[in-house]
């Protein structure tokens, strides 16, 4: 009979496409990954994974075996859930964008782990869209409209933006009175926005106006943009979470206050499966409560939301 750790190792190796990445995901050595898969191959007398110096791939028997292995692990997790006590335990692997991961999520995680000391929490911060299945994450917090997929999503909040600059910058260059004046201003662009040089504003009637901006500084990190703006390097278009304290302290000044900026939805996203571990659903509930969502979109397929990057 196959050992569950061996099956989990095969699943991780197949999903990540690498023994080394599977080892990092499972927190074991690459050699142990290789030994566990070799043990499976010897026990069942089939070749599961073909490996070369450059790549690896599942054999046809390997693909069939993987499907059965995933079913066994799912059944094992279902059994654990059915007899679980009130105490939550296990590891939660979360992917989140940098700003939310720095500004909002630490307090939520601190409270959640204090209330559930059996939880081991692992958070990876990145503004790229990670592959949850291939990289072994339990869930992600994502900002923006979601593309169609088989993932399950729950809207938990709204992401607000603000256009601002330092008082010293405005003293030297003047304060813009209309968004179109930003086309001639020195702006700090966010490489994570597509396209990076187009900023959208909403007039008092809610009609959008998009302006093309530039300025010679382009950065892929919000904290670095914030620091550049405080240093009077230019105008920024940033998440309000990132600069609320600076606006309150006068280090930055909100520009064009009569113009609103578009907002983006915040979702939790997790792979679709018959049974989501209680620790994951409990954490999603905790994040939803902390973000104080006005309307709860509930759990629904990600495809139900407007597609986007």
Question: What keywords describe this structure?
Answer:
about 300 residues, alpha+beta, Arc Repressor Mutant, subunit A, D-Maltodextrin-Binding Protein, domain 2, disordered C terminus
Task: Describe the 3D structure.
It contains ten helices and 15 strands. The chain is elongated and about 75 Å long. 38% of the residues lie in helices and 24% in strands. Residues 293-309 have low confidence and may be disordered. Helix 1 packs across helix 2 (19-26), helix 1 (4-16) packs across helix 4 and helix 2 packs across helix 3 (30-44). Strand 9 and strand 10 (208-212) form a beta hairpin. The chain has helices at 4-16, 19-26, 30-44, 60-82, 98-103, 105-115, 167-173, 222-230, 240-249, 278-291; strands spanning 49-51, 56-58, 90-96, 119-125, 139-143, 152-159, 161-165, 186-190, 198-202, 208-212, 214-219, 236-239, 253-254, 264-270, 299-301. By secondary structure, the chain is an alpha+beta fold. A six-stranded mixed β-sheet has the order 4-3-5-14-6-15. A three-stranded antiparallel β-sheet has the order 12-7-13. It folds into three domains: 4-82, Arc Repressor Mutant, subunit A; 90-159 and 264-304, Periplasmic binding protein-like II (D-Maltodextrin-Binding Protein, domain 2, 3-Layer(aba) Sandwich); 161-254, D-Maltodextrin-Binding Protein, domain 2, CATH 3.40.190.10.
């Amino acid at each position: 009979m196959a050992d569950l750790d061996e099956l989990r190792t095969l699943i991780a190796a197949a999903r990540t496409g690498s023994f080394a990445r599977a080892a990092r995901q499972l927190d074991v050595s690459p050699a142990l990954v290789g030994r566990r898969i070799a043990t499976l191959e010897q026990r069942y007398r089939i070749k599961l994974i073909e490996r070369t110096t450059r790549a690896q791939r599942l054999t046809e028997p390997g693909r069939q075996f993987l499907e059965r292995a995933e079913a066994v692990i799912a059944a094992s997790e279902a059994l654990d859930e059915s007899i679980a006590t009130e105490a939550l335990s296990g590891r939660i692997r979360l992917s989140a964008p940098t700003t939310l991961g720095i500004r909002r999520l630490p307090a939520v995680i601190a409270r959640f782990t204090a209330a559930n000391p059996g939880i081991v929490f692992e958070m990876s911060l990145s503004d790229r869209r990670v592959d949850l299945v291939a990289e072994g994450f339990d869930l992600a917090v994502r900002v923006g409209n979601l593309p169609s997929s088989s993932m399950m999503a729950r809207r938990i909040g709204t992401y607000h933006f603000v256009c601002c600059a330092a008082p010293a910058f405005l003293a030297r260059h003047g304060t813009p009175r209309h968004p179109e004046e930003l086309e001639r201003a020195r702006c700090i662009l966010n490489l994570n926005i597509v396209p990076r040089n187009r900023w959208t504003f909403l007039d008092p009637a809610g009609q959008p106006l998009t302006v093309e901006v530039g300025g010679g500084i382009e950065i892929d990190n919000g904290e670095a943009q914030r620091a550049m703006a405080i240093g009077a390097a230019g105008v920024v278009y940033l998440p309000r979470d990132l600069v609320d304290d600076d606006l309150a302290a006068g280090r930055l000044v909100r520009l064009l206050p009569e113009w609103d900026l578009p907002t983006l939805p915040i979702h939790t996203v997790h792979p679709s499966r018959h049974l989501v571990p209680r620790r994951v659903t409990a954490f999603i509930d905790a994040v939803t409560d902390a973000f104080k969502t006005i309307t709860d979109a509930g759990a629904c397929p990600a495809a139900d939301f407007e597609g986007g990057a």
